[in-house]
Amino acid sequence: MDEWLEIGKIVAPQGLNGEIRVYPATDFPERFEVPGTRWLLRSGEKEPVSIELLTGRYIDSKKLYVIRLEGIENRQQVEELRGCKIMVPASDRPMLGEDEYHVLDLIGVQVYLQETGDLVGTVVDVMTTGHDLLEVETPPEEVVKQGKKQKSQPKKNILIPFVKAITPVVDLSARRIEITPPPGLLEVNK
Q1: d(Cα 54, Cα 186) in Å, to the nearest integer?
Q2: Mean pLDDT computed over 59-74
Q3: Which one-letter DSSP state was computed for residue 92?
Q4: Has this prediction a pTM greater than 0.70?
Q5: CA pair distance 137, 135, nearest whole angstrom
Q6: Where in the chain is the domain with CATH 2.30.30.240?
Q7: Beta carbons of 111 and 126 less than 8 angstroms apart
Q8: What does the pLDDT look like over 21-38, one tens digit per residue?
Q9: Hey, what's the torsion of the CAs at 119, 120, 125, 129, to 10 degrees?
Q10: What is the CATH T-level fold of the domain 4-92, as seen in this structure?
């Protein structure tokens, strides 16, 4: 599946006439608004099949797209697609500007404190709000009891604003992000 990118997931029908609600996994609206070939990956299958996107529109209040696919004409057909992923070839990645990143490239990157070099954790997701937030899973904390190391604190997730002032170094080739959090940012997440 390395040659494919997920751009959205079918979540529900929209009405009775074959319209489909899709939660996007892309920041590029043309993926759902410009007609053309996309690929559908059904649950349990390994290879996606081509489909034709006919129309699409964004519903801001729901944070999702409503699309029409060729051959899908009623609610029952949409129900059969619930949970399917909509894909594009990895070679179809849009070009990005400076300091722009594909979300999938950030997943799995390790995050370090720039000042000390200490590992903060690993990026597990990027959340879009007013600005992007890196969801970082911290390693379990180790505690020494009676001379033996024991894991006492489970992994937890913290949110770090993905802005230049806090994440000044993003080195995807080294799989490393360095952060300069303001006082209290890491503690407020604990």
Answers
A1: 46
A2: 94
A3: G
A4: no
A5: 7
A6: 103-188
A7: no
A8: 999 988 788 999 999 999
A9: -140
A10: Elongation Factor Tu (Ef-tu); domain 3 (2.40.30)
